Amino acid sequence: MNILIPDSWLREYLITDASPKDIQKGLSLCGPSVERTVKTAGDVVYDIEVTTNRVDCMSVYGIAREAAAILPQFGFTARLKPLLPGSIKSGTIPGFTIDNNSRLCQRILALKLEGIKVEPSPKWLQDRLNAVGQRPLNNLVDITNYVMWETGHPCHVFDFDRLTTHQMLIREALKGEQITTLDNKTYVLAGGEVVIDDGTGNIIDLPSVMGTANSVVVENTTSALLFVDDVDHARVRFASMTHAIRTQAATLLEKDINPATSLLAMSRMLDLITQIYPGVKISRLIDLYPHPQKSEPVTLPLGLISRLIGQEVGQKQVLDILTRLDFQVSVTGDILTVIPPPWRQADIRLPEDVVEEVARIYGYHNIQPVLMSGPLPPPDHNSAFYWENRIRTALKYFNFTEIYTYSLVARDDGLKLKNPLTSEWVYLRTSLFPSHRQVISQNLGKADTLNFYEIANVYLPRKHNLPVEQSRLIVTTTDIDYYKFKGRIESLLKDIGVLNLTPRIISDSGIFYWEIALSELLDFATDLHPFTPISKFTPIFEDVNLPYTGNYAQTIKKLYSLSPLIKNIELKDKFDTKLTLKITYHSDIKQLSSVDIAPIREKLTKAL
Amino acid sequence: MQEKLQNIKNEALAQILSATGPEDLERIRIQYLGKNGDLNEIAKTFKSLKPEEKAEIGLLFNDVKSAISIALETSGSKIQNLKLKIEYDSTLPGTPVPIGHLHPVTYAINEISTAFEKIGFTRVRYPEVEWDYFAFGALNFPENHPARDDWETFFVEADPDPEMGKIVLTPHTSNGQVREMLRVGKPPVRMINIAKCYRRQSDVSHTAMFHQFEGLVIDEGISIANLRGTIEYFVKTFFGENRTSRLRPYHFQFTEPSFEVDISCGICNGKGCKLCKEGWLELGGSGMVHPNVLKAGKIDPRKYTGFAFGWGVERCYMMKSGTRIDDIRLLYDNDIRFLNQF
Ligand SMILES: [Zn+2]
To answer: How many inter-chain contacts (A to B, CB under 8 Å) are there?
Structure first.
């Protein structure tokens, strides 16, 4: 997720001599990445990518805190101007009750304002919101958005007078309940979303995701309820994704923000209200937080840090870095104990998490690249890779073109996806041919003949198990010459040493294809060709014409049986009714002459 | 007589030298070596010579005869060559042997696996249709992690296994990590796993099916420095000597620390241009193997450490200088006019 941070806003909390370019570089190398900067009138806006585990950096204040820890490593002075919760008095709002379920919502903060007038925000505040792409609406809504951007915690404001029952009940939605959000869209709830009920069964908010039209501030609002909540993050994501309501609030709260941040947000809202509208009457603060999260200490051997980094980082530097990141640090002997600050509680749990903090601030760019020097794993020569490449290369030189087709198809008897992306990709294929037929039909007319091949898996279902992933070879052609196609496959088989395999060629939709499980070839493929000593007697070759009976294999078998001196029979030509065969006669024990051949030839011509 | 023989030789050689065709040579041959040729005419007079003269003249005679013969022969083949040049037009194309094409993804996979095999990695392949356990659970993904929900990963309609969970189309080659640890048993592990992966997305830089290559190294004392060393080696081998890499902090469930790997832009050489971010291009994720993942692979995280990376094959190929493919979907359209270019 990305966030826009104006440099001028950042410097309200970050006191530093670093330039925007320095800040960009430092953050990118050691913290959240500044993907680009945009120059505006008198300001620079950083576009920063924040990883999902660092939701504490999704704010002006969070980035300032991070930059203050990073910049000294690059030789700059940097100090954070802390944002502290003011002295808000906790208590109750007379006549108003909130009935929370802490399993659904960890913390709720609420505060009533009276004597407020809804009007446009001051210009400086509007400018800030515009700079980060938030549209100003009115003073109350703008303050909630401003504080969200500044502290990283979403805030909400209700029209207090529209909460007519003066009661809030936090509960799970039932399937089929309806809400209308503040942008006047109606949603039918799936059940399980966290909602606020006014005590009569009426839903008055979809907290942490979006306000509903029946409770938000309107033009004539005079009293308001500032509201900050921490709905369980998984339920926030569920509601937001189910209904495709991707508000900034939902994007943040689905990432498990530490509830300590809620108080900062509430107190900052109050700051702004009293600063801009000094006459407003403020209630006590309702703070429902029955189970505050505590930071757990993490211990690790100091040596682990240098070992995992791969070069020595001194103890002083380690402690310095961790302290700058607001960790409480202590060392006993070789053991380092750190307690993360509240906003890092969810993220820092293991020794490796602590190593990461030290290593990134120390700077990955300062770690020298070194290849491993240890022993190699025992050899495991998987010959499938070798033969696949041999087959691919051979087919390429036999004029076939390799394609990669999708494993998912629109129709098949195979496994079905539960959540397909399109109707074209619903089943895991059990044959490669349909994909090839499709590619061929797409390419018709673009070339005289199409010759394709592919090596890919098919997925054969099994009961209560993963499918068998069978690696297959498919070769396809639109050439109508069957024997040419067969000849190339036979040459391929010969090249990889597979003998005695008759390719099963199928004709379908004007295409010849051969599809085979690779294992059927790999079981026999070999580069080992046993050598037969070259005979000192020369063979005799002879071409003979014989009638073609329609079954070549039978003919050959019969001819071989005529004499042991027939060592080889090769097809030279085939006509409708006639075969031209090249016969090789040879003996290992004597030099043959035409006298030896004559009687065999006699038999040959009479045999058929 | 000797002088006469010498003259015949000189005369004959001069004529042979100036001959322009085989007809000339034949005429010369008949004139000197023919049955009634000059040499035979001289031979007829030998019988009038004294025996000692005979021997001497005989030697010279043979010498002259063979000199003319050799000259005729050599000159003959020279003229033959001259004729070849005239008869064959070397600017005409030869008879082509039609050949097909390998798919660019195959070229990329071959190059990647060769590079890693040279530094001792073992190439393996693991299931594309995978248990949730190997795709997520064993990789330290929490139960409710977004990658595990319906919006990002494909699920197969099948009853979940009580231990292994649902069946998914693996969204990354990282599913091979724990499988390889279990296969090898005891480190060292140096794996390169190249396979198809699937994610629910489709745009210019994403297809629902794509290929990843996953590197995994586990041994005693494996460090971030080793990961940097391996990445630098690969970047220089695959992308070129003048390219370099850097690590940025990132976040993945199955590595700690985690890094995003960038390579310097090949267009602007790191200065910054339209195609890159300030001189850098994102290559993909990497990190030190999370101790929970080592445990899932039955490897003691107190004794062994490791690193892993998983990057897109197509993405790497497209980032190679000079490929000029700007839309990954071209690779899977299978248009013959595209394929014929490789
Ligand atoms: Zn560039």
So the answer is: 232
